């Protein structure tokens, strides 16, 4: 078996991560900067640093009822330690739960390469043709996703020039014109858009979501272990038997 | 099935996490502070805030060869998406890999309640009686764990008064006197000591390690998916067959 | 890293499993016999062969609502493939869900070594002292666990001499005398008792349960993927927020 | 949340699985028949019953070095219980490890619907056009997969009329003619072919592999826990650092 890596290396008295000493990263002291470096291979610039940290916070937890939180709790309740609950919760973060970020990144990168005009035309055609547009719409937040609003505000405050923000506007405008109602970008879509601005690999889209959500899953699993009785299950009376 | 939580709540246009609005946490903008809040139920004070962030960085990655990195890579190589590799890697963070933090916290909390003198006596007796002491010694770092050194330096710079630091000194002193050699505290032990200073529940010890390491596991899994051929396995020639 | 095994070996044109050719096992054709061999290192005798197979069937599925079935379904619903749901479901089979078999085996082996009289005395003392007795009692089956009844019937039909069955009788008798009501052995306890008769390692107790239940988890995950909409979650209205 | 199932139901004194009483399944006593019933919704006929059981045995274990075995061992070595190792091992059974069965089933069902002549033509075109053919070829078994040979022999002995076997012959013939060498069907392909004969849903292809392999993973994890030292890892000296 071969073992090759470009990520990190144990040397005499330190760990080298992406050409930086771990001890220097600890001294420098920003967790989200170290994450950015580890994932992308370069340090963030000051604006990216501020935005990336806020992006991680924006998905830190979304209530007890989410798919990943419930998975973690079921597993913990079977009589397992914290790592098993948290690891299990992350398993559930699949194509339909956090997975839209990757698809939206591929979409934004693709549109971005077309240039403004061609992208706008394509978006209109896609909406007219009822093609899937990733990263827009939310079950609860019909008007605006509050987490997106805060991030947008910060971008303005920083005067951050996004290369992909116009795509959000084109989609929302085209949808309003075609359907007469709002289709606001959701948090998955907005994270995707900024990660494209940073030049991240689309495959890392889900990774950023996982890193941001892990603290929430630790807290959910911890609460289950500390306060709940073992063996969470659904009672037979709640289950409908379907005859075939 | 009952669903009760004290962690977070979805309200009209926001998420409330431990009595704070998620939008305010994003504006405030420190990921590690939000993690501290979510886990412990309170905001860190300024010194805790600085130290906790550095603690998370100190375990962010420890090379490709660790148990959790290799687990993540084997799983990914079987043909699975990023979340499955990362979730699987976290599964491996069990009693022998990151799990010492919880045990060391229980030990430090226990010793701490005895007061300085009684604790010192007990520690000497334990070393004489060859009882297990958690959080000390390292396979590679025989003299000092470099990650501990940086954290110690930061504590001094901040003039942080640790309630549990004397326990580290007592163990190292007693071991030196009894065995004539060094038994330095390792990173697990040092994280445990600081988490005790912060008043964290011991059950969360492994959780802090998991949160700190997840970025490393995302990077390791991503690298496997992007650069390696499928189906990592150990060749039959490398395996020794044991006759019974 | 060292790789040593006593289980199996790839040779030129076959796999050798516990000194048997895989091709011979396929020809011989009994799946449960191959499982018995792989786990214990020996082939079952004819009575063990019959009973072991029935034991596996007895835990094949226990409804949609179990902890492991629900875990598998939540994970699948997040947008994951079959293996992730099934693997995740098995994670949940912890100390409180299937885990009693191991503890009951340790208990039966321990009692068994005492001989009949001393075991009976100890059991009475344990019940009087309210000590935990593993493998007895069931939330639903207050009188008899129907799966145990069938296995018992088969044992009688076969005239199988169990070395540990008297322990079940001692516990039930002692409980009846002391408390005036029934505490019937449950399926976990009964599997443990028979696995002790077969001489299995207690660590394998949970393993037999996992092997028996995996088909159920495959069916539950398959049904979720085939018939249910993505992203199973608990609605916010069902969750009670606890103020601290 | 809605809970609907067509699989199983807890009633007063029994479990009903696919319209059969669990107690009757235990009495009938064939584990693999119960698996067939649970997965497909019907009992196997006598020939299917014999073949399906042999198919499960054929994948029971394939050495210590497989992706799933190594995953299970890494996880267990981190200090985790049996269920976590086994569950983790199953996670690794992804698109490149056991996953070919599903794809081969889709392929065989597709070809099967074309009728013999059209299928033969399509297969020839696919081989000429270097299209991916699923379920053929093996890294080690260049001539014949020994597990396939035993299954083939049993089919002949039973005089089982396979509706899809001609497709294996067409592929092997076309490949021999076009490339002048053998491309034998592998065990994944052969299981797929028989599962098509039985009318199984392709999504269950990986499920049958998982059920067959779980005993092997239990044995591998058990061996790791019982005989190996904690914290399996790859030493830094074995890892090559790639400069970018």
CATH 4th-level superfamily of the largest domain in chain A: Cytochrome P450-Terp, domain 2
The poorly predicted ranges of chain A are: none
Chain-averaged pLDDT of chain A: 95
Q: Give the biggest sheet of chain A.
A: 3 strands, antiparallel
What is the structure about, briefly put?
The first copy, chain A, is mostly helical and 244 residues long. In chain A, α5 crosses α11.
Structural write-up:
The structure is a homotetramer. Chain A has about 240 residues and is mainly alpha-helical. Chain A has a three-stranded antiparallel beta sheet. Chain A is globular, with a radius of gyration of 21 Å. Chain A has two domains: about 45 residues, no CATH class; about 190 residues, Orthogonal Bundle (Cytochrome p450-Terp, domain 2). The mean pLDDT of chain A is about 95. Chains in contact: A-B, A-C, A-D, B-C, B-D, C-D. At the C-D interface, β1, β2, β3, α1 and α2 of C face β1, β2, β3, α1 and α2 of D.
Salient structural properties:
mainly alpha; 244 residues; 2 domains; three-stranded antiparallel beta sheet; Cytochrome p450-Terp, domain 2; homotetramer
Describe the secondary-structure layout.
The structure is a homotetramer of 244-residue chains.
Chain A: E1 4-5, E2 8-11, E3 14-17, E4 20-21, H1 22-28, H2 31-40, H3 46-58, H4 67-77, H5 82-91, H6 100-114, H7 116-128, H8 146-158, H9 165-179, H10 187-198, H11 205-227, E5 240-241
Antiparallel strand pairs in A: 2-3, 3-4
